[in-house]
Amino acid sequence: MKYFYYPGCSLEGTAKEYNLSTVSLMKALGTDLIEIEDWTCCGASAAHAVSELLSYVLPTRTLALAEKMSRERKEKLDILVPCSACYLNLKKVSHDISSAPGLLEKINAVLEIEGLVFENRLAVRHLLDILTRDIDIHDVLNRIQVPFKNFSIAPYYGCQCLRPFPVFDNPEKPESMEPFIRAAGASVHSWEMGGRCCGASHMTTKPEVGRMLVAKILTRAKWADMILTVCPMCQMNLEGFQKGISRASHEKMDITILYLPQFIGMAMGLPENQTRTDLNLCITPGFYDKYQAALKQLSDGITRSA
Amino acid sequence: MRSTSRHILGSVKEMIQACIQCGTCTGSCPNAFAMDHTPRHLWQMVLNDRTRDVLTSKTFILCSSCYYCTLRCPRGLPLTDVMGSLTRLARTENPTGFKKSHLFYGQFLQSIRRHGRVNESELMTLFFLEMKNPLLPLQYAGLGLKFLQKNKISLPFVEKEGSHGLEKIFEKVREMENQA
Ligand code: SF4
Ligand code: SF4
């Protein structure tokens, strides 16, 4: 299988490990990712706040570049996007041009100055969508090496991979990550926060509100060993402010937060230079010990059976 | 505020004309607790042409685009998009009212305009400089330091290899918007 790949700005910076672990995992699963050449920012939440036209033009520029590659290579591939905010911005273009007459022409009038044209030919898909619907879970199951037995794992989906477009999961009661958690031998932490909002960019512009939303999520994950995310914004909000939130709420909130492909990679036995857990901001000592114990049990088992 | 004439809200009003004031949006909104007017109340104000009250409200700037309201509204109204439209309107009609968010978004777009991609550390530096509040960066200093240690953010103002700006695209968008 092959996909065009759009990492997006965060995955070049604060979410490097999401990029590197996604690329490694997809490779291990026998999938090729072809990065869109010369891609640029999708506009994040900033373009919407300033200019409607720009908020369409920015993501469409990258889509047009992918179509250009598709023509040159004579291959029609889906576009894989790991960041939920990028995913929605890219996906929204094809949805909105069908309900807003004249919008496509306007966008193309701008892109023309770079010699680009958008024809709405390729599907935009979230990483979780591709893992859920294109990858055979039995294939993953067969490759599991490190059992996460005794781990309780809280799947956190956030908003924009689920809503407003319900493509691969139930936007009210998401569960697409659960098969991967179970495949690794862990149990799914039962909570109702999986699809709740982390506050997105509130942490920068309205930190007092952002902290409240994040605190709610962290509190309900208290008895879990870790939280899994599929978005750099969710990840940063959940992992970056735990100390401050603990101080403010007089309750210790420290919990390991990993990106889903890091976790699947770990369970499949990919080495750290592929899962890049060295780049995460909060892997707790308790988690680390438990994981080391699982690894030790594994190697003991191997020596005994040898 | 530059003007309080009725037609400013016209296009927004059209988008929510079918609202039946059931309050599902408010009940679903994770940020309603921090808003001065709940989403349902905001729609009511829009429908009643309370332009000034609407554009000085903090409601839409507190929207984090979670799309719960859009998903659940029994009339299928595009409420998250409406919040976006109001944010843009407020930016032009009441520019001093939402200084912090507007500065941040402005800097964000400048970063894209210059580099094509966002340079996260440059963005934060410029944002702090424009806010002219030397204490503000402290809130984020710890996190920024962690990112630097992990080699996740590049130093400000260093051009990434192969990156280029989007001057022409930004200019063209501005030109077309001025015509409209
Ligand atoms: S959910 Fe829809 S119909 Fe109900 S109050 Fe909100 S906007 Fe109006
Ligand atoms: S999209 Fe915005 S207004 Fe709607 S529920 Fe979410 S935060 Fe509230």
Comma- or semicolon-separated keywords:
heterodimer; A: 306 residues; Glutathione S-transferase Yfyf (Class Pi), Chain A, domain 2; Rossmann fold; B: 180 residues; mainly alpha; Fumarate Reductase Iron-sulfur Protein, Chain B, domain 2; 2 domains; globular; binds iron/sulfur cluster
What features would you describe in this structure?
Chain A has 306 residues and is α/β, with parallel strands linked by helices. In chain A, 50% of the residues lie in helices and 9% in strands. Chain A folds into two domains: 2-128, Up-down Bundle (Glutathione S-transferase Yfyf (Class Pi), Chain A, domain 2), CATH 1.20.1050.140; 144-305, Rossmann fold, CATH 3.40.50. Chain A is built from 15 helices and eight strands. In chain A, strands 2-1-3-4 form a four-stranded parallel β-sheet. In chain A, strands 6-5-7-8 form a four-stranded parallel β-sheet. In chain A, helix 1 (16-28) packs across helix 13 (260-267). The longest helix of chain A is centred in the first third of the chain and has 22 residues, at 52-73. The radius of gyration of chain A is 20 Å and the shape is globular. Chain B has two domains: 3-93, Alpha-helical ferredoxin (Fumarate Reductase Iron-sulfur Protein, Chain B, domain 2); 99-179, no CATH class. With 180 residues, chain B is mainly α. In chain B, helix 7 runs antiparallel to helix 8 (120-131). The radius of gyration of chain B is 19 Å and the shape is globular. Helix content of chain B is 57%, strand content 0%. Classes of the chains: A alpha/beta (306), B mainly alpha (180). The interface between A and B is large, with 57 and 53 residues. One iron/sulfur cluster binds next to helix 2 and helix 3 of chain B.
